[in-house]
Design goal:
single chain; four-stranded parallel β-sheet
Length: 333
Amino acid sequence: MSIGSQPRFRLATLPTPLQEARRLREALGGPERCPRILIKRDDLTGLAFGGNKARKLEFLVADAIHQGSTVLITTGAVQSNHARMTAAAARLAGMRAALVLTSSTEQPEVQGNLLLDRLLDAEVHLLLPESGQTNDEAMEAIAEQLESDGERPYIIPGGGSNAIGAFGYVAGSLELAGQLFEMGVAPRRLYYASGSRGTQAGLVLGAKLYGASYEVYGVAVSPGTGDRSARARTIIEHAADKLGTTVTLDSNDLIHDEGYVGEGYGIPTTACLEAIRLLAQTEAIFLDPVYSGKAMSALIDHVRSGKLASNDTVVFLHTGGNPALFAHGEHLL
């Protein structure tokens, strides 16, 4: 069964551009020292300021529609890109959204993604540390209440990270393969920000299915590898099974480099902030301080430390998240 045969509710503006970052390359030493850098602009998917989650939501929302659902429930941090885009997808599908957002305070600043959640009139439930509930437990409780009210809720895991969500980047990998073929390039590595591992699952499965030349290189945005690697492997296996195929994974397939996390999730590093400024001032492309900024800081470090050769080509997957910039102004300036 092909990826094209999977139910899909169109939400994204595709294909997204694959652009060469010539000015960034010059800033990093030019062709004599820096590899060719291509940026896959998934910040331009178009849904509610764009981002990578639009690809996953196309398949998840299609499944929700098939099940007759009326409310999408999902979870994330208070500045979650995934939550913002799920709320937007729900509106376009004629549904409502209920969001479980982890917060350290009962009154977080209504800025960035949270502001957009409110404008979309999503039902926001703040999950405080003292609640004693996990994110999944909170979503289940909300689903039970909605069912008792006559609704038909559909729970989407954080980040859209399950087998159906992984189809987004299986399809995205096929799209990228066509663009690389047209350009006549075979990249050595694809860099991206790795969090809940759903994007990783889709990228790795897509690379396997379509014979990609590149290594899928995940740059961690939060600590914790073991359980998440097992989760990614499970998602890949389930997604492959749904597609009627099997894949063989080895220890090098699920790269999750924790060397650029810094103090923790959502806390920008000095290198992350430098990467944001550098890309803005060379390519007029904005990165976010939670995900793509940290991933780009890894690519820049690999160039400067000589881990990438000048005759290499690499792809940087820009996963979006730009609304979070407005919640981190004090760090950026």
